Amino acid sequence: MAVEEIHAEMVSSVWKVLVSPGAQVAAGDTLVILESMKMEIPVLTELSGTVQAMHVVEGEVLQEGDLIATVATG
């Protein structure tokens, strides 16, 4: 089993968390929506699997590289 780690690509705030641990996700599903400079940025999973953990909460400010979620595949 592989684990995909999803990280923030820029400084942003967590606008909406769409999944919770244990949820089944497909490649391309949106996990969270970030907000930066009044733009909404969906954060997608690249692989199908099960959400192991969400490391963010709504309203949290993220720095580039912060861990958002882990998804177990296989």
UniProtKB/TrEMBL annotation:
InterPro entries: Biotin_Carboxyl_Carrier/Decarb, Biotin_lipoyl, Single_hybrid_motif. Keywords: Biotin. CDD domains: biotinyl_domain. Residues 1-72 form the Lipoyl-binding domain. It holds the Pfam family Biotin_lipoyl. The keyword Transmembrane does not apply. This is Biotin-requiring enzyme. It comes from Blastococcus aurantiacus.
